[in-house]
Amino acid sequence: MKNINKIKLKQKKSLSANDYFDGIKKGNRAILSKAITLTESSNLKHQKIAEELIELCLPYSGNSVRIGVTGVPGVGKSTFIEALGSYLIDQKSKKVAVLAIDPSSKKNQGSILGDKTRMNKLSVNENAFIRPSPSSGTLGGVAKATRETTVLCEAAGYDTILIETVGVGQSEIEVKSMVDFFLLLMLAGAGDELQGIKRGIMEIADAVIINKADHDNINNAKMAVREYKNALHLFPANSNEWIPKVELCSAIEDKNIDNVWAIVESFINQTKLNNSFIENRKGQAKFWLEHTINSSLMNQFYNDDKVKELLIKLEANVSEGKISPFKAAKELLSTFKS
Ligand code: GDP
Questions:
Q1: Which atom of ligand 1 sits closest to the CA of residue 255?
Q2: Which CATH superfamily is domain 61-273 in?
Q3: 281: number of Cβ within 10 Å
Q4: Which residue has its alpha carbon closest to ligand 1 atom 10?
Q5: Of 26, 32, 157, 231, which has the fewest CB atoms closer than 10 Å, so is most exposed?
Q6: Which CATH number fits domain 1-59: 3.40.50.1470, 2.60.40.60, 3.40.50.720, 1.20.5.170?
Q7: Rounded to the nearest whole angstrom, what is the distance from the C-alpha of residue 139 to the centroid of ligand 1?
Q8: Which residues contact ligand 1 via a Cβ below 6 A?
């Protein structure tokens, strides 16, 4: 009897792609959460349902503004997202999803957004959906999951997607390839080196926002705004004709958040008018197609038993100079194809 109940429970629990889709379309957040977990799963059965679900959701996605938020730990990202998210929900009637990319995060290690004490206000708002970074795998895997999560959130009716990233490395480039607008949070009075921000990240920012412009830090913040404006002038013009903006705010005091949002709105208006908004999204879709093919081919190649065996042999031969790396690669590839 007990066993029968167990089976029934299990059957009840495993939803089909259509069940998930219905729940998502109805804005059921528990189902949305479960669906996201499915996209992050390495279980092949889960992956299959997730793939089917993404296809179902795709026609209902895309109608959002996707914004990347980056900056070193401590700059105020979660405080800023809480302030901006609340402003958008209260003043602009938006529905906000907050996602995170942190490839270094591990379960139970206080990853970004993993800490329950962060974003207290937003996390209980019924028009907000907050999802911590997937805790497993490589940056590529985490980024893929985040992109799929974006599709699911959009199908669930979230019209503003905020993607938070740690701001110290490669993850910005991945985030840039999945957002419309890229926002860099900085502090006044700390050199770029000190803030761990690489020049390359400044170059891809659509806006640099100097946070913590409050108390006795206001003058420093104003000075930093002038400095960053000068610095950004030196970068080559963007192909979308957008000139990156610099602004200050105090996330903790909710100050100037409206002006930060005005920058995003003006970017969206301008890039939609000159078509670069849609061109950027098309380019991103192409990038992800290539990216997915490349990583899936690599996976298949390195997991092929014949390749694995031959690779060990050829690696040794290459390092001893018995065979050139080019010839070895050719042999491995033809083994893979045979
Ligand atoms: P994150 O690591 O980038 O997400 O930064 P947090 O949002 O956790 O903020 C780090 C610290 O800076 C916290 O103690 C915040 O209270 C504080 N903080 C964040 N924004 C502001 C701000 O606008 N002004 C001031 N004075 N402190 C802030």
A1: 23
A2: P-loop containing nucleotide triphosphate hydrolases (3.40.50.300)
A3: 14
A4: 74
A5: 26
A6: 1.20.5.170
A7: 26
A8: 71, 73-79, 211-212, 214, 250-252
